[in-house]
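Course assignment 3, question 2. Fill in each field.
Student: A.L.
Task: Predict the tertiary structure for the chain below.
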Amino acid sequence: MNLVNALFGIVLCFPAVYGQVYTFGFCRDIPTVMPFQLELYLGTWYEYARFYLKELDGVTCARSTYSPNPDNTLQVVTEGIRKGRPVTLVGLGEVFDPINDPARGQLTYSRSTPVLPGGNYWVVKTDYNNYAVVYSCNQLGVFKVETAYILLRQPMSPSRRLLYGIYFYFLRFGINPWNFMRTDFRNCRRPVRYRY
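Answer field:
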């Protein structure tokens, strides 16, 4: 009976993940960037690739701008284009432990935004000037829900060496890097603010 209840609960949770990559298993505790310098991380990042997310399906020219709020949280504004129309998502970033692990936090969107309300946000690799790799894993019973991003400071292709290094990094922790989907930056025009 407990197994049936657990499976029923998991099935009910699937719509909440909005198409993120979910698989059987448990989240791993992946190390984050140490020491992490938030001031250097702030600014605009272009999305080179990401794991599939239903709410971002069809979005091209995606970029996110991170800026500090007076209450020590971060405002995260993600802009892109879907079917020729600008799309904007506004989120709130919070760091779990600013002293001991400032690269591990949570990104939350308002209830009116069609994305998972809150998810882990772990900066696992960055050089601050060129690239960053973000990973998220949330546990739903015996399933894990994963999201990952490869972010760049400029909307251009990174070197193969960098990409292979990122892919092998994920493989080391049992995460499938082939879940990455490349973000299209062809025919990008200047995004205009538009809210859902």
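Instructor remarks: The two ends are 42 Å apart (CA to CA). The helical segments are 2-13, 38-41, 160-172.
Grade: pending
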